[in-house]
Every structure is written in C-alpha cells, then in structure tokens.
Write a structure and sequence with these properties.
The structure is a homodimer.
Chain A: E1 7-9, E2 19-21, H1 45-48, H2 54-61, E3 66-68, H3 71-77, E4 85-87, H4 89-94, E5 101-107, H5 118-130, E6 135-140, H6 144-156, E7 159-165, H7 166-171, H8 173-181, E8 185-189, H9 195-203, H10 211-223, E9 228-230, H11 237-242, H12 245-257, E10 263-267, H13 272-278, H14 282-286, E11 292-298, H15 303-306, E12 308-313, E13 322-327, H16 349-356, E14 361-365, H17 367-381, H18 387-406, E15 410-416, H19 424-431, H20 442-449
Parallel strand pairs in A: 5-15, 6-7, 6-9, 7-8, 10-11, 10-15, 11-14
Antiparallel strand pairs in A: 1-4, 2-3, 4-5, 12-13
Helix pairs in contact in A: 3-5, 5-6, 6-8, 12-13, 17-18
Chain lengths: 456, 456
C-alpha cells in the first residue's frame, strides 16, 4: 500500500542551503548588461544606488559562484524550509502511468504566505535593514509578492508601502488583508499619493491600474524619500539567485529518491520560481546533460513563445533601465487570466539569455487546460495549486502521457510554487464552466512590439 | 542570532504515530453512555449502525488503549505529517519575555485543507470505504470540516454531499469552491433536497440556516439512502481519538527541545483539536502531573464556563442520541463570531467528563482580544492563524505575561490548529476597527437551557 501513495522526501535542517547559487559564474557566454535609456550605455552600480541597498546591487552583477546566505536569513528560511519534495504517486495512479514514468514536485506552498516569494523577500528585507533602510516601497499585482514582502518587513521591523494594481485590490481583498495583517500599508494604484498616480487619475478617474503604473508609483515614492528603497519580486538577477534554494534542495531530495529528472518544468511569468528550480541543474546541462528544461507560460502572455529578444523597458511607463530580454513590448496588456503572477510583458534577462542560448524550451498553455490539470492534481495529491503552477502541472501531465504512449522511461520534476487557498475564485469560475481562454491576435502583439525602443 | 529566531522541531516519518491513543482505557471513572431519547436507555452499536460503519462504532466504545492506524491512513497522513512544533522565539521577543518563560506551538495548518480536520476525515473515509460505502453525507458550518472530508473522500473514491449552513455558503464561497475542487457536492442548507430542508423553506424562504438544520438534512439524507453513511467532524469519541496524533507528536518534539510544558492550551468548540493535543498528556496528569490544561472558548459560546453538565441533544433539531456534556442547550444560537468552528452549543462528552473530574480548566475569550493576539503572533511568527486558534494564542500570551510579572518559570504549549488564509475577511474587519465583541446576557442562556430535555 505504501508504494501506491504519494511519497514525501523531507530534508532535515542541516540540509538548509548555506549559499545561493549564482549562475553568472558558470554561463558559457556572459549576459548583456542593462543599458541607461538616455545614454544607451551600460549602467553601473551607482545608477542603481538610489533604488537598492549596495549589497543587492553587488549581488546583481556578482560573478562569484556561491554567495553566503546570512545567518539571520537562514534563521527565517528555517521557519518553513527545507520544503518537501513529493513523488506524485496519487497523480501517477490517476493517469494510470507505468512505473517507468515518474512525476516529482517540489512544493513551495508551505511558507506562511503560501508561495516561493518569501525566499527573496526575506533577504531583500534583511539587506535593506543592515543598510539602515527603515522603509520600502513596492508594487504588487495579484498580491503574492506584496504579502510576502510584508511578512519579511514585519520580521525585520521595516515599514512597507505597497502599491497594488487597483483591479486586484478590489478583486482580491484577502491578499490586501494579509499585507495589512503583517503591518504593511497597501493602497490601490493609481493612488492620490504620487504625482504619477494623480496624473493618471486626472486623465482617467476610473483607471483600473496596471503593474506598469504601480511600478511608476513605487519608484517615484522611493525617489522622493530619503528613508525609502525600492524592492522587486522577480526579473532581476539577485531575485532569481535567492530562489536557488529551491533547486538546491530538490537535487538533494532527488538523490534521496534515487531519481534523476529527464524533464524539469516550471511556470514562468517574470521567471523567478522557474529559475529557482532550474538554475542549480544548469551546470549539469552546460556539461552536456540531457535533461530537458521547459518554461511554461500562459497563452495569454506568451513572452518566450511569441515575443522577441531585445532591449526593452522593465515597466510599462518606461522608467527603468533597458533590459535585454524576451518581451511582448512594455506597453503590451496581457488578458485578464487568473494566473496574475504570469501577466508580465517581459521575461527575466537571465532566463531569456539561457533560452536564447538554446538550453531551455518554452511552451504556452491555455488556462482552461491548466485548471483541468489542477483539478486532477488536487483530487489525486490533496494540495490545491495556485493558478500560476497549474500551467506547470498541465505540461508535466502532458509529458507523462506522451511517455506512457511512446514506451519510454521518463522522470519528470516540476515546481509547485504555491497553494491556491486565496485564489479559489478562479476554481469557482472553472467549475461553473465560465472560465474563458484568451489568445492575443498576431496583430495585437505586433502592434505592442512597435513600442519597443530598439524597434521603434 | 539563531537563538533569537523561532526554532522548528521536525520529526522524520519514522516518528509518524502507528496507533491512536484511546483515553477510555485510562479514565479514572468511565464516561456516562449516550442515551436513546425515546427509551432513556443506553444505546448500543446496533442503534448507530444506520449512520456509521461498524469499525467506527466499535472505536466509539472501545476500551483498548491503542488502536492501530491502518497503513492506508498512515500513507495519507504522511503527506503532511508529522507536523512541525515551533518554539515561538519571535513571539517571545515581541513580548519581551525572560528566558524562563517559553512558548511552544504545534502547527496543524500544513495539511492541504489548512487545519487539523483531515486527521479524522481520512480515517473516517477509509473505514467507510472498506465497509463498502460509496457515498457520505455531512454538514459543515464555516467549511473547514466539509472541505477536509471532501479531500479525504477524493483520496478514497467516495462521493460526498455536504450540507453547508446557508449564511456561510454565501459568505465563504472559497470554502465551497475547495469542496467542489475536491469533487464534493455542496448545497446551501436549508436545501430543497430533503424533507427537513423543504419544510423549513416552506415556513421561512429566507432562512439563513444553522448547524442544527444542516445536521438534520445530512442525517435524513443518510437514513433515506442505502448507499450513504453519515460523518461528523468533532464531538464523538472516535473523532477525538483520531486527533491524538497531534499530542503524540508534540510529546516527542518537546523531548527533542528538552522542554516540559507547565501549561497546555487549546481552543475548544466541539473539542476535537483541543482533545487531539491534550489527551496524550492526560496519563501523566492522572498520575499527579502538575501541568495545567486549559480549554479556551469564545465568550460568545461559553459552553464550559457558563453551561451545565447534563444530557442534551447533539443537534438543534433533537434527532441525535442524548449525550452527557457541557451544554448551553441545543437550541442556543451563538452570536455570529468569526471563529465559526467554535460556535457549538455543546462540548465533546469526553472533554466535558475530564472537565467535570477537575483535570481541565476553562477560560473564555472575546474575539477582539483574540484577534489582537493573532496580529502580534502573525507579525512575530509569520503564520496568520485561523480565527479559532486565535483564542488559544490569547490565553498563551496572557499566561506568558503573568509569568513574566510573577517571576516564575513557565513553559507554555498551545495548538495552532489551522491557518487563516481563507478567513482573511475576519482580519479585515478587525483591522478596520469594526470587529464587535459579543456576550450573551444571562437570561438568554437561562432561556436556552430550559429546552434541555433533562431540565425541561
């Protein structure tokens, strides 16, 4: 009977990672630097100093292979880390897979905010704290990032102001309440608290906001206050590096299970949970390893599968440095899918670089198919997934079924980046049969791409 | 630094309990039996056979000290068990406690439904399955029980119909969506699906329902179908026994920590999470152990602190056997506090018996004070508690502060029975300053008690 049921691989605390893995040390070719939008020249640490504490800026450009995780950060990680890895025997049984096809998942939903986001929120709050920063400003879409940073700031005694996209602020009051429970101030963006917000509300009092507008507000907030720094939950190198604790643990747990993955899968919006899982597997891949690595994005925001690889702004308003990345254009407005965390016009430069070098595959998935997979997963494994990783589950199931048909042996690993307890409205919509698929017509994507500075 | 931060005590899977602890073997005096309401005579196993599978009926009356946990149940427990025990260093720091005052908490929110309820939902589904039952009917108030049983039924391939109190059905759509995600059918009670429901809707089409009405519907559903059994999430002996895995693990984890509790605290509604923690500590208490054991109930439903100890019905409609328990009267309607899981007019007969014998203390807490404690807890420890265990946290903090003042050494243990991700509306109400306290006037309680059969 034991062999029929899902198996959990638990690491004890001695296996907590003591260093983040910095893939920049091992890249076959270096990344293209961010450029100053005015001069077109590479930006230096000094250009970022108004926004970030120097420790994080140095991590952003570091070429050291391992960066020690400060003891104070490890002590917080320890509250929920190491996270479990599961062999998905329940799901395998539902799919009637032969024993040669195995599915594993790493589960990040055991953190207090329910996702992988605290892996970077905690060190970001810590490095701000030791730099003497007393207040942070950030933006959030669906609220996973804002709530995780709120918790981290509570631990380190830092004030936090979150600009939350107005439509999500209205639709996801639970996420706002979580931020406030952890002591953060959360306002709907566009707000009356910044010039950027007021200008937009003047022009359109009914604006429902966007991630781009919220970034503009948080950056302006930071730039106009001495006590405040800015914080970002994905995209940047140091953010992805903080997430590598996921993959480091997964490697140890797969060893416990005596398994080696043939396919490694993660959903990708900005790219942080995907990178967190896959980066520690990359040295083996660079050395000729055969494991396929698949980034799964929503069909409604197909950055890798339909975007271009070029320099573009990180935000809609065009206030950030230019980042070389896969992008649909910084003015692209992804359809209103439930996986709010995957609605980003670009992709982390590091993930884009690895994709461009041919080390990664990309697939896009429609949300109805993703939720169909999630329902099967929940009924087989118990955990109800957040809308974002439903995309990874869909591809994991598809890969398993392909192997079942073809007769090949295949070990599949995916990242279950969070649970869906605060996103049950999405399941409700699916179960009532009213969930819609979205795909942007080619012309809409073409049009958005004409606004990319390097193509304008 | 490590000593400043909360410490997590993790058991490996070899420490998963292999048997439930049945305190009936060790009671100094036996419990009073349930009585048939018609004859006034003790009921026998045969009387319960239409409602429950025989394995559970035998557990209800067993005098064996340990009852083996079936392998198939252990295999599901393993998905999230053993659960962690924490030394609450963050909270201790916020309270500025001296080192002689220590707070520990056992955390049951790591289960997929977010509470301790699956500890009994899984074995109940299992014993129904091996008895050939293909369908279960149950009721749920706030939805913790209904969703946990939905998950358990999904694992064992059993159909589930949940009658959910209509006001909660409307106010907590996320809980309903969880049940449906796990494959259960959930209807608002009173429903048009039973005679009991139709009669109530005929008389009052706007009825918002009650737990008593929902029980009536689930019991009628069971009684009128060959394929269906009934399932209850608290109160009964076998339900409490299934929860003893909590306390068994806690004892091992406290040994790891080198700690011995002076005070053990749990919130108590029907009594199952409280009993799950404290029952394994009772043999030491019977042997003269000095640990104080405190049941915490809401001031709005003060069963132990203001009720009487006598025979009463388990449900509002008076359809169940008579149970000897602390009760406010089966027609008592507790005020609409957010801790829906604590709104029960009675108390588990086993907990009532231990209280009557003088082994337990009871305290009542108002919800504003409970949420105040929960906010401090969340900002210190990360986890946002469900509304029910906020009551336990309040008393844990009060006990710690008393010891801080008095100079005594004190080790406190409480049960954090679930997380609050699906209950953030309650926090929102508290944070906006509009949360109300409720206390029932003495006359209202006296009036409800006149309906208790043994006092009528």
């Amino acid at each position: 009977m034991a062999d029929d049921r899902t198996t959990k691989y638990v690491l004890n605390e001695e296996n907590l990672s003591e260093a983040w893995y910095n893939i920049q040390a091992d890249l076959p070719t270096p990344m293209a630097p961010p450029l100053h939008p005015g001069t077109g020249q590479p930006i230096g640490p000094g250009d970022l100093a108004p926004l970030f504490p120097m420790d994080l800026i140095l991590q952003e450009v570091s070429q050291e292979r391992y960066i020690e995780i400060p003891q104070a950060v490890q002590d917080v990680y320890r509250l929920w880390r190491p996270t479990p890895l599961y062999r998905a025997r329940g799901l395998e049984k539902s799919l009637e897979l032969p024993d040669r096809v195995k599915i594993f998942y790493k589960y990040e939903g055991v953190s207090p905010s329910g996702s992988h986001k605290p892996n970077t929120a905690v060190p970001q709050a810590y490095y701000n704290k030791i730099a003497g920063v007393t207040r942070i400003a950030t933006e959030t879409g669906a609220g996973q990032w804002g709530s995780s940073l709120a918790m981290a700031c509570a631990f380190f005694g830092i004030d936090l102001k979150v600009y939350m996209v107005k439509i999500s602020y209205a639709q996801k009051p639970y996420r706002r309440a979580m931020m406030e429970t952890w002591g953060a101030e959360c306002v709907a963006s566009p707000s009356m608290d910044t010039n950027a917000g007021r200008a937009i509300l003047d022009a359109d009092p009914d604006s429902t906001g966007s991630l781009g507008i919220a970034i503009s507000e948080a950056v302006e907030d930071t730039a106009t206050r001495e006590d405040t720094k800015y914080s970002l939950g994905s995209v940047l190198n140091h953010v992805l590096m903080h997430q590598t604790v996921i993959g480091q643990e997964a490697i140890k747990q797969l060893e416990m299970a005596g398994a080696e993955p043939d396919v490694i899968i993660g959903c990708a919006g900005g790219g942080s949970n995907f990178a967190g899982l896959i980066l520690p597997f990359m040295p083996a891949k660079f050395a000729g390893g055969k494991a396929r690595i698949i980034a799964v994005e929503p069909a409604a925001c197909p950055t890798l599968t339909r975007g271009v690889y070029t320099y573009d702004f990180g935000d809609t308003a065009g206030m950030t440095p230019l980042l070389k990345m896969h992008t649909l254009g910084h003015t692209f407005m992804p359809a209103g899918i439930h996986a709010g965390g995957l609605r980003y016009h670009g992709m982390a430069p590091l993930v884009s670089h690895l994709f461009d070098l041919g080390y990664l595959e990309a697939q896009s998935v429609k949300q109805v198919a993703a939720f169909e997979a999630a329902i099967m997963f929940a009924r087989s494994e118990g955990i109800i997934p957040a809308p974002e990783p439903t995309h990874a589950i869909r591809v994991a199931i598809d890969e398993a079924l392909l192997a079942k048909e073809s007769g090949e042996a295949k070990t599949i690993l995916f990242n279950l980046s969070g649970h869906g307890s605060v996103d049950m409205a999405a399941y409700d919509t699916y179960l009532s049969g009213s969930l819609q698929d979205y795909e942007h017509p080619a012309e809409a994507i073409e049009e958005a791409m004409t606004h990319i500075p390097s193509r304008a």
